[in-house]
From TrEMBL:
It holds the Pfam family Lactamase_B. SUPFAM superfamilies: Metallo-hydrolase/oxidoreductase. InterPro entries: MBL_superfamily_lactonases, Metallo-B-lactamas, RibonucZ/Hydroxyglut_hydro. Keywords: Hydrolase, Metal-binding, Zinc. Residues 80-299 form the Metallo-beta-lactamase domain. Its cofactor is Zn(2+). Belongs to the metallo-beta-lactamase superfamily. The keyword Metal-binding applies. Transmembrane segments: none annotated. The keyword Hydrolase applies. This is N-acyl homoserine lactonase family protein. Residues 296-315 are annotated as: Disordered. It comes from the Archaea.
Length: 315
């Protein structure tokens, strides 16, 4: 795709000689919070991303999905880049690290040729320094240096950009994610202290998911495998109570782009394994049908508000 892209205060995108407005509907507001008894969950929007429309929704046969993304001239509206903070009586857990304002620096994506082409041509970011996860945790009264665990849903750059804010954390990623590298992982930007431990799912079923890995002694916060977007993608499933009633939260990372994809049983165009992605969508749909669950993926424009409103899948 020829031409450069510029995002200005007026929200204009310039591609070659073609200029089109980009929606400003998604803004980086303050974190939104849900209290589940003694568990507190914060949704933290660390800037915005726009992708090709075929990136968001699978178009055509599985085998042509990447070509469809590259050739698609259309862009989505701005989507949030959301990470989450879980404050549990036993521990403090970040789910992903969010994006960094360094995405605006020339050469930031130049880890290798393939990675540079993906980021330069297929994604657009709008991130300010105060959007990053560290400053936002400071505003919540949480010192990022005191975060105990950072659980990575996967290792794409928009989920690892804020790693430098968490120098003392224990990092977790699925074993498959670590053993099967994926395009989009900006390894040249990872801080030296980022040495994630591999996760195996040996704590049995949890909710509608057949396998899990507990992060807390009370087993209320668990990692569950949700492969598809990447081969080793995982999500975080939390069980708590609200006003005496059981309530669940599923932080979905990029398992789907939004709740609507679960409702329609569709998958994103950008996925390493479409077959696994369809099975993951089915597991998520089963979770939402069987348990009162707030579903909050990373790029859902309504995910943070749904969390704040304690909205379930019917919201």
């Amino acid at each position: 795709m020829a031409g450069s892209l510029l995002v200005g205060a007026a929200g204009l995108v310039t591609l070659g000689q073609v200029t089109a407005p980009v929606s400003r509907q998604v803004r980086t507001g303050p974190p939104t919070t849900l209290d589940l008894g003694d568990i507190r969950i914060h949704a933290i929007r660390t800037g915005r991303v726009a992708v090709k429309r075929a990136h968001r929704v699978l178009a055509g046969p599985d085998v042509t999905r990447f070509g469809s993304i590259v050739l698609d001239p259309r862009w989505t509206d701005w989507l949030p880049v959301t990470c989450f903070l879980v404050e549990h009586p036993e521990t403090t857990v970040m789910i992903d690290a969010g994006e960094t304002a360094r995405t605006a620096e020339p050469g930031y994506f130049d880890c290798d040729l393939g990675t540079r082409l993906v980021y330069d041509r297929l994604l657009r970011f709008d991130v300010h320094s105060d959007d990053e996860s560290g400053p936002q945790l400071d505003r919540l009264g949480v010192d990022p240096a005191n975060v105990d665990i950072v659980a990575m849903t996967h290792l794409h750059g928009d989920h690892t950009g804020g790693l430098h804010h968490f120098p003392n954390a224990r990092f977790l990623a699925s074993r498959t994610e670590l053993e099967r590298p994926t395009v989009g992982a900006l390894r040249c930007r990872w801080p030296d202290f980022f040495t994630p431990s591999p996760v195996d799912y040996d704590d049995g079923p949890f909710g509608a998911f057949p396998k899990s890995r507990a992060l807390t002694e009370d087993k209320a916060v668990r990692l569950v495998p949700t492969p598809g977007h990447t081969y080793g993608h995982q999500s975080v499933l939390i069980r708590g109570a609200e006003d005496g009633a059981e309530r669940w939260v599923l932080v979905g990372g990029d398992a789907t782009f939004d709740l609507q994809q679960v409702r329609s049983r569709t998958v994103a165009g950008i996925c390493d394994d479409p077959t696994a992605a369809r099975k993951t969508v089915a597991h998520i749909a089963d979770q939402l049908a069987a348990y009162p669950t707030v579903y909050a993926p990373a790029h859902d424009p309504h995910g943070a508000e749904r969390l704040a409103d304690s909205g379930t899948a019917e919201s």
